[in-house]
Design goal:
Layout (H helix, E strand, L loop, with lengths): L10 E7 L4 H15 L3 E9 L3 H11 L3 E4 L11 E4 L3 H8 L4 E4 L7 H9 L3 E4 L2 H18 L3 E3 L2 H10 L24 E8 L9 H5 L3 H4 L9 H9 L1 H14 L6 E5 L5 E7 L4 E5 L5 H9 L13 H4 L14 H11 L3 H18 L6 H14 L8 H20 L5
Parallel strand pairs: 1-2, 1-5, 2-3, 3-4, 5-6, 6-7, 8-9
Antiparallel strand pairs: 8-10, 10-11
Bound molecules: NADPH dihydro-nicotinamide-adenine-dinucleotide phosphate (NDP).
C-alpha cells in the first residue's frame, strides 16, 4: 500500500550519467523509492564508462532503451540503442529528451556531457564537482543563458542550498541578463562553512601520511564512495574542490568560504548571516538524502535514509584543518585568487596524481599528490578559457606536466 503523497506528484524524465558508480547506483535506488511513493520519475537514459554488464542490467531493470558507454566494443542486447566512445554521454544528452540530467560521472570526463545538459536548459543535478572546478566560468554563464538550474547533489552544497532556501528559488536561478557575472549571494550572508570528516588520516602525523598506501587511504571512516573521491577525501582535496564548487554555485569569493573538520559527518554546512546567526543543515551521512532532495525538488517527501538522533550521536566535534598536513585547502584559495584556467589546472593535476597513486607500482607516495598539485598550480599557466576546448587544453597541459614529473621519478 502506497503511503499518501504529502505534496503533488513529481513528473520528470531523467538521464543518469555515471549510473554504474556509487552516486549512480544510489540514484537508481532513490528513483525506485520515489516511484513507490507515487511520483512519476522515469529514467530515459543511462551512461557509464566501461562497466557494460551492469549498465545493460540497469537498463533492463529500469526499462531504458538509450544508453552510452565510453568504452568500445561490448556486445549489447538488441533492445538497446547504444552510443559508444569518449563522446557517447554527450551524444546521449543531446539526443534524448529529458527534464533532469544527473551528472554523476567522475572527473573532468563528465564536463562535455554536463555542459551539454546546461546548454540545453535542462535541470542539472550536479554531483560531478570537477565540472564546476574546471569550467565554472563557462557552465555558470551557460546556465544563465539557457535558464538551466543547477541542483546541488554534493551533501555540503545541498546543505547550503537548504539553509538558504526561501532566499532563492534554486541554487542558481536563471538570470535574464546573458553574460552577466555569476549571481551574488545576498550581502547579508557573511560566510559559508563546509564541513569535512577529516578522512582516514585526520589524526595521523605528516610523516605517517606521506607514506600511506592506497588501501589505507581508501578506508574512509564515514562515507562509502568511489575510489577517486575517497582518495580526495583523505588529502582534503575533496574539500578544496568543494570550496571552488561553492564559489561558482553560490557566487561567493574565497574570503566568505570556509571549511572545518567535523568527524561525525552530521552537520554538512553552515550559513552565517551578517548579524551572527548561523543556519546549519544536519543529516546522517547517506548520499541518498541529497540525491532525493535534488531529484524530487521542490517536493520534500519521506526518504530512505535513517534519521538523525542527536542523543544517539551524543556529541558533535569541530576542529580546524591543519594546513601543514592538509595543504589542499590553501591550493583552492590560490586557484580562486588566480582565476582563469587555474581551476582546470588544479583539478587535472590532482586527477593525474591520484590515478598514478591508485595504479600502485612505481607510483607517487600519498604525500606527493599534494606536492604535485601545488607545484602544477604555480608552474602550469594556460590562457583564461573562453571555450570547452580551452578548458580541455589547460587540463591536458596540467596532466602532461604531472606525467613528466612522475616519469622522472618525482614523488616516489
Ligand atoms: P564512482 O567511481 O563510483 O563512479 C563513477 C561513474 O562514472 C561510473 O559510473 C563510471 O562508469 C562513470 N564514468 C567514468 N568515466 C566515464 C566516462 N568517460 N564516460 C562515462 N562515464 C564514465 O564515483 P562516485 O559515484 O563516487 O562519484 C561520482 C561523482 O560524484 C564524482 O565527481 C564525485 O566527486 C561526486 N560525489 C560523489 C559522492 C559519493 O558519495 N560517492 C559524494 C559527493 C560527490 P564505470 O563504472 O563503467 O567505469
Amino acid at each position: 500500500v502506497r503511503p499518501p503523497l504529502s505534496c503533488p506528484a513529481v513528473t520528470r524524465r531523467l538521464l543518469i550519467l555515471g549510473s554504474t558508480g556509487s552516486i549512480g547506483t544510489q540514484a537508481l535506488e532513490v528513483v525506485a523509492h520515489l516511484r513507490a511513493l507515487g511520483h512519476d520519475l522515469r529514467v530515459v537514459g543511462l551512461a557509464a564508462g566501461s562497466n557494460a554488464p551492469l549498465l545493460y542490467e540497469q537498463a533492463h531493470r529500469a526499462g531504458v532503451r538509450d544508453v552510452a558507454l565510453a568504452a568500445n566494443g561490448a556486445a549489447a542486447p538488441d533492445t538497446l540503442r547504444v552510443r559508444e566512445g569518449p563522446d557517447a554521454a554527450e551524444r546521449l544528452v543531446r539526443e534524448v529528451e529529458c527534464d533532469v540530467v544527473l551528472a554523476a560521472m567522475v572527473g573532468v570526463a563528465g564536463l562535455p556531457a554536463t555542459l551539454a545538459g546546461v546548454e540545453l536548459g535542462r535541470d542539472v543535478a550536479l554531483a560531478n564537482k570537477e565540472t564546476l572546478v574546471a569550467a565554472g566560468s563557462l557552465v555558470v554563464p551557460a546556465a544563465q543563458r539557457s535558464g538551466a538550474r543547477l541542483l546541488p547533489v554534493d551533501s555540503e552544497h545541498s546543505g547550503v542550498w537548504q539553509a538558504l532556501r526561501g532566499r532563492f528559488p534554486s541554487a542558481l536561478p536563471a538570470r535574464p541578463d546573458p553574460g552577466a557575472p555569476p549571481m551574488r549571494c545576498p550581502g547579508d550572508v557573511a560566510r559559508i562553512t563546509l564541513t569535512a570528516s577529516g578522512g582516514p588520516f585526520r589524526t595521523w602525523t605528516r610523516e605517517q601520511m606521506a607514506r600511506a598506501t592506497p588501501e589505507q587511504a581508501l578506508r574512509h571512516p564515514t562515507w562509502r564512495m568511489g575510489r577517486k573521491v575517497t582518495i580526495d577525501s583523505a588529502s582534503l582535496m575533496n574539500k578544496a574542490l568543494e570550496l571552488i564548487e561553492a564559489h561558482w554555485l553560490f557566487g561567493l569569493e574565497a574570503d566568505r568560504l570556509d571549511a572545518v573538520i567535523h568527524p561525525q559527518s552530521i552537520v554538512h554546512a553552515l550559513v552565517e548571516f551578517a548579524d551572527g546567526s548561523v543556519v546549519a543543515q544536519l543529516g546522517v551521512p547517506d548520499m541518498r538524502l541529497p540525491i532525493q532532495i535534488a531529484l524530487a525538488y521542490p517536493a520534500r517527501v519521506p526518504g530512505t535514509a535513517r534519521r538523525v538522533d542527536l542523543c544517539e550521536v551524543g556529541r558533535l566535534d569541530f576542529e580546524p584543518a591543519d594546513p601543514g598536513r592538509f595543504p589542499a585547502l590553501a591550493f583552492a584559495r590560490r586557484a580562486m585568487e588566480l582565476g582563469g584556467a587555474a581551476g582546470a589546472v588544479l583539478n587535472a593535476a590532482n586527477e593525474a596524481a591520484v590515478a598514478a597513486f591508485l595504479r600502485g607500482e612505481g607510483a607517487p607516495a600519498f604525500g606527493a599528490i599534494a606536492d604535485l598539485v601545488g607545484e602544477a598550480l604555480e608552474r602550469v599557466r594556460a590562457p583564461a578559457p573562453r571555450s570547452l576546448e580551452d578548458v580541455l587544453a589547460a587540463d591536458a597541459e596540467a596532466r602532461r606536466w604531472v606525467e613528466s614529473r612522475l616519469a622522472r621519478g618525482v614523488g616516489r
